Amino acid sequence: MLAPLEQPVHTVSPWSEAFAPLLEEEPACILVDARRDGLGGLQTAHHLRDHERARHIPLLVLVGSTLAGADLLRDKGLGTVDCLLEPLHEELLRAKVGMFIELHRRERAMRAALARAELAEAAAHESERVLSTLLGNLPGMAYRCHNAPGFPLSYASPKALELTGYSAEDFTSHRVHWVDLLHPDDVQEVWAHIQAALHSREPFTLTYRIRTRSGEERWVWERGVAIYGPEGEFLMLEGFVTDITVHHQAEQERERLLTQTRLEHSRLEAILQQLPCAVHIVEAHSGKTVAVNARTEQLLGHPMIEVRSIKDFVRYRAIHPDGRRYAAEEYPLTKVLLTGKAQPEEELLYERPDGSVRLFLISAGPIWNGQGKLQAAVASCIDITELKRTERHQAFLASVSETLASSLNYEDTLAHVVQRAVPTLGDGCSLDILEPDGTLRRLAVSHVDPARAELAWEVARRYLKGLNAPCGPGAVIRTGQPELITDFSEKLRTGHAIDAEQLKLVRNLGVTSTLTVPLRARGRTLGALTFYYCRNSAHYSQEDQVLAKDLAHRAALAVDNARLYREAQLAVQLRDEFLSVASHELKTPLTPLHLKLTALMRELPRCCEGDTRSQGLQRHVEVAKRQVKKMSMLINALLDVSRLSQGKLKLELEDTDLGEMLDEVAAWFAPEAVRVGSVLQVETLTRVTGKWDRLRLEQVVTNLISNAIRYGAGRPIHARVTVEGDVARLVVRDQGIGIPPEAQERIFQKFERAVSERHSGGLGLGLYITRGIVEAMSGSIRVESRVGEGSTFTVDLPLSSPPPDARR
Predict the structure, then answer these.
(1) What percent of the chain has pLDDT over 90?
(2) Looking at residue 552, what is its pLDDT?
(3) What are the pLDDT digits (tens) for 237-278?
(4) pLDDT of residue 465
(5) How many other C-beta atoms are found inside a 10 Å radius of the C-beta of residue 157?
(6) CA distance 750 to 766
């Protein structure tokens, strides 16, 4: 009967555990057939109602034809059940079952819908929870607002409080508008940017400033987008705002540091380019150039070489003194890269592409990063070619000056200079001197090849005649100007040769370049120095001319000084001869004059006795005698000077007691010391005897005592004689005006004084003669003095006999 319903039907009889699997399938209804076994059907109904899975499944009980069966089911507490009485109608049964099936289908659909609704609600709650969690943990505020002035918010996440100091409710209740927080300078820009984004229907990103509830200024970053309705109409703005103050400050600091770094880099680059030395910085390990200044390429004479590895350094052009090229690992920079150690300064020869060889002074060092790893290497380099050349030239000139100063025989010294000039200034050198008659004389020749030196002498003997030559030494001496021929070509040889023989000699000499400079001193040209190369690879330059002129100037001064010295010697000799003759002639009338004055002093008391004028006359005579004595002393001093200058001071050596001599001289000067207010104190030993000239020794003691009285300023004067080993020592000390340090050596020279002539008498010869006498007796004299504290003169004389040459 149920087949037309096209639903599966399961039959179980009687009640058993076999119902359990069927109940798991949730049947639409259960038919209990109780028509024949009413009690069994009732028990089955009770079992079904007690079963958890069947309690809610509709029961359709088929009972007998009496109504009492159905009432019995209800009375047994089975609840509401549906019953069908016999006779059964198929349509009614199918209708009842079909209704249960439909109800079952709807119930299942409703339960599925409820399950889906519950799942959707749970998902919504989970999404809300996740969103709330995300919004609560995001470092910023999510919002939804209207595109209206003030940007009124309809939603703000809880983080609004942390960001702004205002709660979300403050914004959504419109007690506070977002625009109220914007910095005044940023309002217009923010509005314009958002409107432009809405117009283009694109998201917008903003960075601007806000002021929080506490007044703190913060930088915020905002990202937003417009929300549109189904019809494309604008609804809301949604977005996110976060605090980027720390990031902004860090970015500002980064920009500041970057700007500072760029400035420092520019400054360092400017300094690098302005450095007078070459600077080359390379990358660690690879050797690739990181930085280089323009001076580097100028020194190298070529562009920087592209380096990809250390091996590429071999393409540079450094050479050893023997001409071998540097290996890559021999360069200072590569040594630093390979070892990490700084390389001290070293001299390096570098061959430029033009063939010239320069001498560099180079050093290199490592550059480490913050982790202590090698980051780069740097080398600095200067060109010391000219410096070294100058040093050699200066050393050469100093050596030449020493040679020139070693003797006043200028011909010999100049010949040595010519020898020294080769090969420093050329392969050959010759010196020609201008004679008083206007002719030239070749004084010296030097050449690296002795055979060519002889050719130079031969050229001079035959063709060095006068000053009328168009070139060469004669022309240079005539004009006083140097002559530089960089390339002495065959054409020049032919043009300058007087005849074929001279041309042959010059060709054999092989001169390729010449430099001739005049010897000038005090406006006069004394001669000429000629330097020349005899090889095509060498030529003279302006720098060589400067050195040659300096050498010639020094040589000219030496020649001039030697001539002046000879003239001075002659003049001194003539002066000494004149002084000797004049002194003898002056002494001749002084002796009888002194005798006459002595006789006059004896006669005056007798002749003018009782005459009141006799005392006045006697005083005049005494003055005259003193002046004659002074004149005699001056004349003797001049004679002594003449003798000392000519080496003709004669000594008469005899046993002489120095202490006794001091006592005698002190006794003579005692009245003079008293007159000026000084006390003369003398200390002597019992006997200090030596082989000395008595009269000359007396002259020495007299000069020292008289000077002490003259410059002692009226203070005590001490004189003593002692013995120190094999030396007799005389010390005379005063406490007078003293002698300045710069004058203590000068006072022993002729005509010199420690004070001006106005404050002292005499010719300034006393100490000069004193030293000459002392040294003639193989002794010595020295002075120790401080201005205002006096002077101490010490004379040391040997107690043994002086050598024979002292008796001159």
Answers:
(1) 41
(2) 92
(3) 999 999 999 999 999 999 999 999 899 988 988 988 999 999
(4) 67
(5) 22
(6) 9
Which tokens hold the place of 269? 């680059």
CB atoms within 10 A of CB 749: 13
Q: Tell me the C-alpha to C-alpha distance, in Å, between residue 602 and each of 330, 609, 616.
A: 106, 12, 14
State the average pLDDT over residues 363-385: 94
Q: What CA–CA distance (Å, rounded) separates 283 from 291?
A: 9
The pLDDT-based confidence of 808 (bands split at 50, 70, 90) is: very low
- What pLDDT, on a 0 to 100 scale, did the predictor assign at position 14? 65
Q: What strand order describes the sheet that includes 204-211?
A: 153-156, 140-145, 234-243, 217-228, 204-211
* Nearest residue to 791 via CA among 674, 710, 682, 697: 710
Separation of alpha carbons 34 and 59, rounded Å: 12
Under DSSP, the state recorded for 51 is S
Report in angstroms the alpha-carbon separations of 406 from 76, 425, 429, 556.
160, 22, 21, 15
Interatomic CA distance for residues 450 and 457, integer angstroms: 11
Structure token pair of residue 488 = 């002495």
ω into 14 cis (within 30 of 0): yes
More confident residue, 742 or 518: 518
* β strands within 353-401, DSSP E: 357-368, 374-383
**What amino acid occupies position 318?**
A
For CA atoms 136, 140, 144, 149, give the dihedral sign: positive
Using CA atoms, how far residue 664 sits from 410, 576, 798, in Å, is 52, 33, 21
What is the structure's pLDDT at 580?
60
Is 803 a residue whose pLDDT tops 70?
A: no
Vertex 541 angle, CA 537 and 542, to 5°:
175
Is a pLDDT exceeding 80 seen at residue 158?
yes
Burial (CB < 10 A; 0-12, 13-18, 19+), residue 497, is middle
* Distance separating alpha carbons of residues 15 and 297, to the nearest angstrom: 113
Residues whose CB falls within 8 Å of the CB of residue 781, separated by 6 or more in sequence, listed in order: 748, 770, 771, 774, 775, 793, 794, 795, 796
Q: What is the pLDDT of residues 50-73, one digit of tens each?
A: 777 777 788 777 777 654 555 555
Would you state the pLDDT for residue 807? 42
**CA nearest to 585, candidates 622, 627, 638:** 638
30-33 and 59-63 beta bridge pairing: parallel
- For residue 31, what are the β-bridge partners? 60
23-27, 158-162, 252-256, 542-546: segment of lowest average pLDDT: 23-27
pTM, 2 dp: 0.47
Strands (E), 126-168: 140-145, 153-156
Please name the residues in contact with 340: beta carbons below 8 A apart, sequence gap of 6 or more: 366, 374
**Mean pLDDT (whole number) for 680-695:** 87
Summary mean pLDDT of the chain:
84
Question: Hey, what amino acid is at 770?
Answer: T
- CA 675 to CA 279: how far, in whole Å? 82
Nearest one of 334, 333, 340 to 362, comparing CA atoms: 333
Contacts of 153 (CB under 8 A, 6+ apart): 143, 144, 145, 171, 172, 174, 177, 178
Angle between the N-to-C axes of helices 68-75 and 38-50, in degrees from 0 to 180, rounded to the nearest 10: 30
The one-letter amino acid code at 488 reads F
Q: Which position has the token pair 């001064």?
A: 557
Question: Does 517 have pLDDT greater than 70?
Answer: yes
Look at the alpha carbons of 313, 317, 318, 320 in this order and tell me if their dihedral is positive or negative. Answer: positive
Q: Are 174 and 158 in contact (CB under 8 A)?
A: no
